[in-house]
Amino acid sequence: MPELPPSLLSLDRPGSALSNSTGPIIDFAPDASCLDVEGLSLAYGGKPALRDLTLRVPRQRVTAFIGPSGCGKSTLLRALNRLHDLDETVSRQGSIRLEGQEIHAPEVAVDELRRRVGMVFQAPNPFPMSIYENVAFGLRLQGGMSRRRMNDIVEWALEAAALWGEVKDRLRASAWSLSIGQQQRLVIARTLAVRPEVLLLDEPASALDPISTLKIEELIRSLKSQLTLVLVTHNMQQAARVSDYTAFLHDGELVEYAPTASLFTNPRLARTENYITGRMA
Amino acid sequence: MTTLTIEAREVRRRERLETIEKSLDRRHAKERRFRRMGLAAVTTGMVLVVILFSSILMRGLPAFWQATFYLDIHFDPEVVQVEARPVQEAGERAADFRDRDLAWQSQVGLVNWQQLIDDALEAELGEEIEARQTRDLRALVTSGERRALRDRFIDDPSLLGETKRLKLLASANVDVWIKGNIDRDLPDAQQQLSAQTREWADALHERGVIRNAFSTALFLNPDSRSSLASAGLAGAFMGSLFMMLIVIVLSVPIGVASAVYLEEFAPKNRLTDLIEININNLAAVPSIVFGLLGAAIFIGYLRLPLSAPLVGGLVLTLMTLPTIIIATRASLRSIPPSIRQAALGIGASRIQTVFHHVLPLALPGILTGSILGVAQALGETAPLLLIGMNAFVSNVPGSPLDQATALPVQIYLWQGNELRNFFEARTSAAIIVLLALMLSLNALAIWLRKKFETRW
């Protein structure tokens, strides 16, 4: 995380320092960007959800998208692995590049893209299979893997998702027999097993109890040494606890995008401050 | 001043509480009334079902047992004057041998088999039968039994000269008489049997020569008009079976595939909307219209044979397809989107998502829909009447191209038979067989549903 200039850390700043301009204000230029979103506009059946949005997601960092309900943060997240392709009412302009390559280019295979950019949803959605099969499923899709190697990867993925210790003796049990928190970590393990480069997390802890939430947050922090994470959350404290960078979206537009500490302690725009202090739902 | 206000408030509060209490009573009474109405509706339904089933069972069950003669048949060489059955000689061509064998069989067919039955009856009755009484005597055993004797002899020529105790079906009129399905006090002119025949039947019944035995004929024989007592369901059953096989083989794969394509892969545009509306409309088309369509296309244009289970199966397939497509689509739609997203989210292709995750989860619903559709087709009569499946067919069909009829059509045919007091029970028995088939299909649907639902 970049060092913050000391002046930005002072809390007793005058209100007049806040600008009422609508932004966007982008406070940093990450040197190694993994995802480049440029001029992205997206509409559901003519109803705009994202307007001309440009931002860069840094590699091996946790980036959080925050904003009120309906601001477009989940839409943006889904656009990153083309989950909108299934909905024919969605129209899109602009580009998204993953490691410099346009993801909408015709030569990009969408299933391979989704392997590279994995997704974890709000409600845990394990398949109605055993714990082992859930994790092995993505590997089986690719085929051509020895039993031994598959066992190793399943163990590695469950280990990485901090679940191995709890399930190693009952890998053949149904995934639905796990608690909700365990199920969510299982889903993360399932996604990790196919070695994605980016992990998209759509409010991954909002259905969980506080202890499970804590475990997921620890997991997110531990994973950033291996991959790039993008987190959508409603929970301000969570964004502050786990993310390195935070983007505040409102009404389909990017309002402010800055290192997390700087955004939470010293927002530059009045709209941002209103939201993070709870004055705007 | 303030006290007044407080009192006024208190009064208003109490009034409000009373209103709430009154409305509560009213609402509870409404609920009780509604529950009683529901209960009454369910009870009425149950009572009607019980009446239906018990009346069918009461009429139909006796037909599973039929008046049967237990006679010692002597294969008298004087009557059965045939040579020994030919055997294939060394060096003889197969065709030549077959010709000789067929010649022998037609020779056997010329034997007066009725004579054997007459002799056996005469022996049982212990009296000389005069020539003028032959007619009365032959009204006892149903006419199909002489052919049964012939077939038995062709199967086993060593019977020649032997005496064997055999079960022979009594004629339909004797069955009616023994079971008391006709008023015994009616004058002779209104009786279906002559006084002599009735007297013999009673005597033989008393001595245990005629017994009420379980009727295998009902299950093993095809329909018959010359020998009513041996009319059975085998032909109709096989016809229905062939049709069901065709319906299952065609409508389930085509229906499920169309539903999967429409639901998971097809673009949403005017064309697919039009297709969807039309499928829904087809499900509501009266079944007889499908029969007209089948008559025009399969028989009129494609020149497929009349009365064939193949055509019946094709017509019923057309009728069943919309049901299966609609049930499958509903079942696919009920799979939570999270499962699709989960599979897509880790790099499954759309095909992999559908075949690995969506279809297995939708399977119980698809199976239930398909089986109910097939069961509905099994009970369908109207379209079959238009493609000639109401013809009288006295053979058991050996292939879907042979002429045949179907169980519900057989019920319809028997229901219209003139010999009411015999066929009323027979019709109910056929209904019982059809219902049993339906119930087992439905039980299969429930079992499959349970089996695939509780995998985890």
UniProtKB/TrEMBL annotation, chain A:
InterPro entries: AAA+_ATPase (IPR003593), ABC_transporter-like_ATP-bd (IPR003439), P-loop_NTPase (IPR027417), PstB-like (IPR005670). GO terms for molecular function: ATP binding; ATP hydrolysis activity; phosphate transmembrane transporter activity. One of its GO terms (cellular component) is membrane. It comes from the Bacteria. GO terms for biological process: phosphate ion transmembrane transport. This is Phosphate ABC transporter ATP-binding protein. Pfam families: ABC_tran. It comes from Billgrantia endophytica. Keywords: ATP-binding, Cell inner membrane, Cell membrane, Membrane, Nucleotide-binding, Phosphate transport, Translocase, Transport. Residues 35-276 form the ABC transporter domain.
